[in-house]
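Lay summary. Proteins are chains of building blocks that fold into shapes, and those shapes determine what they do. In this project we predict the shape from the chain. Here is one chain we studied, written as its sequence of building blocks.
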Amino acid sequence: MQRDDGAVDEHRRDDVLAGATQRDHYRMPGGLAARQSLFAFVDRERSSGVPGIERLDWHAVSTVLDAGCGSGTWMRAVARRAGARLVVGLDLSPGMLAAARAEGAPLLVNGDVQHLPLATSSFDAVLALWMLYHVPDPDRAVGELARVLRGDGTLLVTTNSNMPAPHEELATEAFEAVTGDGRWRVDLGFSAENGEEILARTFDEVLPEPLTTAIAVPGPEPILGLIRSLRGPIEALRGPVP
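And here is the predicted shape, written in a compact code that computers can read:
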């Protein structure tokens, strides 16, 4: 829903990012898989920065929590690394957990990152990868992630920028051409622009690392698949899309 001045109604924004619309969107893993499939087209020559999962010394890590594990992609990546003897995945969506289980993830918990059903000081490393912008209260979630970390543990967080990526600019042009209204994005509540500030309210040391992932697709279908995967949230925000 847009206000008369063109801004997004805050209640609708919250629903799209963290409310019932988002929970329905992540009920099953198909949409997430469509977006993750873009990483098959990473252009490493034009990308920069160190991917988050490569920043840790995994030989020194034995217990890992993947908070917001989705279908278990990062759990599988961590489990292949030396030293990680216990990898636990947590997600709010039973559908996502079912997909992770089908891929062989053994330890899965259905839970809310804002109220972790896990013991204090349980993990050497906690992952929160591209998920804190879906949480209604990021500060509470960060506090819970800190609670389950051991004293010398590491929280690894990734997020996106509120600056539109090239594929988002392309989607904006497409919506403008088809509907006459190119507005479809909402600003993230936890982003590259404010994430460090939010984390610093809980952690004494925050080490930001800019990361640019360039994608070079061979044709339009991967981008069209990504846009189709976002149809539910887009229509919840701005109405039916032709």
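What the prediction tells us: The radius of gyration is 18 Å.
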